[in-house]
Amino acid sequence: MSHQTQLFIAGVWRDGSDRRTLDVVNPATDDVIGTVACAAIGDLDDALNAAAAGFKVWRAVSALDRYKILRRAGELLRERVDALASILTTEQGKPLPESRVEILLSADVLDWAAEEGRRAYGRIIPGRSNHILQSAVREPVGPVAAFTPWNFPMSQVVRKIAPALGAGCSVIVKAAEDTPASAAELVRALADAGIPAGVLNLVFGDPAEISNYLIPHPVIRKISFTGSVPVGKKLAALAGEHMKRATMELGGHAPAIVFDDADLEEATALLTGSKFRNAGQVCVSPTRFLVQESVYDKFVERFAANANAIKVGNGLEAGTGMGPLVNHRRLQAVEDLIADAAQKGGTIRAGGSRLGNKGSFLEPTVLTEVTTSMRIMNEEPFGPIALIAPFRHLDDAVEEANRLPFGLAAYAFSRSARTVAALGAQVETGMLTFNHLGLALPEVPFGGVKDSGYGLEGGTEAMDAYLATKFLTHAP
Question: Cα separation of 271 and 250, whole Å?
């Protein structure tokens, strides 16, 4: 399988004007599986001109007709899911079943945004005089620049472009160079569904060059970024300097709090699956496992056994439970964190080593005796590592959960209504799920607080970021 992924500008698939490309590597085999075109400044200018023209066309399209196109694109993803899952797994690494779920969820996001676009209501405001008519109408904010990562190369893109398109905005997407074909196939589905030329544009290339050019440009009216906290802060500052709306979905270091009254078997099974999904390369991945003292040893034993039972391998092979990390840079970064923790007294209860001499494979890893002096207890690991520590009282767990500047997701397991209420009130996070895994559905809000960013994707709130409210008042 070899893919030569091109740019998509003004309805045309094309190479970059200077013919630069980057190799795309299969993280399971280290084989070069294709290339991706890089955009030069001239290509970005073309995309900006296309987005400006496309916005004029698209905002005039009725909400019903926009709905039909988005719904058709979702249907195309479902029809193509098997072929697309193979592409996604080959360039990103996750097991085929996870790729299928991502693609089908992306189709659901398109459906949700299509429906919400038909319900972007304004309102009538009673006037102080009978002859005054007052109304608030909602309009698309304008062309959007969206920047997306490689860990969910289709669903991260669709979370940005679907509500933008549903609201009537045009979009330029700068997708990840590690996983370009997956993003391109999503764009292809929308193009095949009938989206007008210029409404949706796709570019790749140097991330800093593209963001520094697009964000200040007067055509762009809205920014949406998913990625690391340090990069997000830089882009948010740049957006603020130019008075651009911004949605920032940044990193996390999610606490998972397990109380002694929880169903331990169910909690362990759910958290193991969540931790090692996509090799831990998930912004909402549970990372700091805080377990009440009386069940701590039993939890560690079960969790380590579950981790050791996971089959690590090529995501295209049947039975694979966890694939490789996305590249050797990520593998080395995670290994450095493990080494630092071990040197500072951490105990490796499972895994801890790379696998094989090809690909970017790492064993599912469990660390105990962790302390706050370790880098891994303070930096987002973004890899298949679980950090398990005991706590005595609820207040101790809350203190540790809130210690870091992150606030994206949190998990808790307890049968006590009082405990659930206390955690809901006290844990500083954008999302908190109790006794199950209930995050990232199209119909629910998704976003963080503190250094994990601001703005929401998903739910009715997703559309708000792409709509401006205009007040109109009429006198006879």
Answer: 22
